[in-house]
Amino acid sequence: MLKNFSKRKFGLFALVIIIGISIVGCTSGSGSDDEIVAKIGDMIITKSEFYDELVNQNGAQVLDVLVADKIMQAEVEKQGIVVTDEEIEEDFEEMKGFYGTDEALNNELDNYGLTTEDVKRNIKSNLQIERLLEPYMDITDEEIAQHFEENKAGFGQEEQVKASHILVETEELALEVKAKIDAGEDFAELAKEYSTDEANSEQGGNLGYFAESKMVKEFSDVAFSLEVGEISDPVKTNFGYHIIKVEDKMEEKAPVLEENIDEIKSQLFQTKSYDAYMKWYSEKLEEYEITSYLD
User: Fold this and answer.
1) Do residues 263 and 155 touch, judged by C-beta distance below 8 A?
2) I want to staple 38 with a disulfide (CB 3.0 to 4.6 A). Which of 45, 65, 242, 291 is the partner?
3) 31 close to 66: Cβ distance less than 8 angstroms
4) 18 close to 114: Cβ distance less than 8 angstroms
């Protein structure tokens, strides 16, 4: 599923809004109600039939989403909330960082039928909702300290390496590829040509940063023993034979409260966000006159 990127709190709300609008959008626009939207042999499904079924199945839920979106936009305008393109791009770049490459992110979006523009609208909605909810949040120093103590392990940093690898099936082929590397051929290009790890071969075998516990022991033992820039001889694991190149290293770092306050606030915000949203939305439903014409 789409990863929970960055520190934004309401990706799910905004994605529901996007999906809801796209559903309703299918039933609107030019054309008559008897416009044909599908054929099954000699039988047809008209636009009006399609619309009626959508309303019957999802009408109330989609309408609720659209009402919430309209109220949110009205409140954003009333309060003069501005989200800049720079803020949207910053969060989008952070999201891309979780996936490693543009291709990996685009593949994930394709799985959900979403586009880059859909995601950026989602980010904008996230930021707007966050600012609308800020007055409904009360995060105390005591809560911050308690959350840090209860989750201290998550705020430290294990020793990590950033590495790439080329995975092949036989030792013979691994030795052949290693010889090509030793002769000066490009590691990334050889990964694209030879590696059987389809998850990263097109990215030059890039595995990103990982802790020692995240890989099988034979792989980690070698990866964490190499110096930055060093390339291993073939390493056998249950997956085959790896040639490992270490790109960078990060040392272990103990958790420090003062260095993690913003992240802790973000996590607490997320924990409290649903209740805050429901309180905010209940108040707004009382302020706005809403009339539904659905049957």
Assistant:
1) yes
2) 45
3) no
4) yes
**Contact status, residue 150 vs residue 249, Cβ threshold 8 Å:** no
The amino acid present at 292, given as its one-letter code, is S
Per-residue three-class SS string for the chain: CCCCCCCCCCHHHHHHHHHHHHHHHCCCCCCCCCCEEEEECCEEEEHHHHHHHHHHHHHHHHHHHHHHHHHHHHHHHHHCCCCCHHHHHHHHHHHHHHHCCHHHHHHHHHHCCCCHHHHHHHHHHHHHHHHHHHHHCCCCHHHHHHHHHHCHHHHCECCEEEEEEEEECCHHHHHHHHHHHHCCCCHHHHHHHHCCCCCCHHHCCEEEEEEHHHCCHHHHHHHCCCCCCCECCCEEECCEEEEEEEEEEECCECCCHHHCHHHHHHHHHHHHHHHHHHHHHHHHHHHCCCCCCCC
Give residue for tokens 């799985």: 111
Q: Domains along the chain? A: 11-141+260-287 (1.10.4030), 160-250 (3.10.50.40)
- Name the residue type at position 152: K
Q: How far apart are the first and last CA of the chain?
A: 35
Distance CA 26, CA 43 (A): 21
State the Cα–Cα distance between residues 214 and 17, nearest whole angstrom: 36
pLDDT digits (tens, 9 = 90+) for 227-258: 999 999 999 999 999 999 999 999 988 899 99
**CA–CA dist 170, 65 (Å, integer):** 55
Angle at CA of residue 235, ends 233 and 237, nearest 5°: 170
Return the residue matching tokens 């590691």.
187
What are the tokens at 156? 């430290």
- Which amino acid does the sequence have at 114? L
Q: How far apart are CA 182 and CA 176, in angstroms?
A: 10
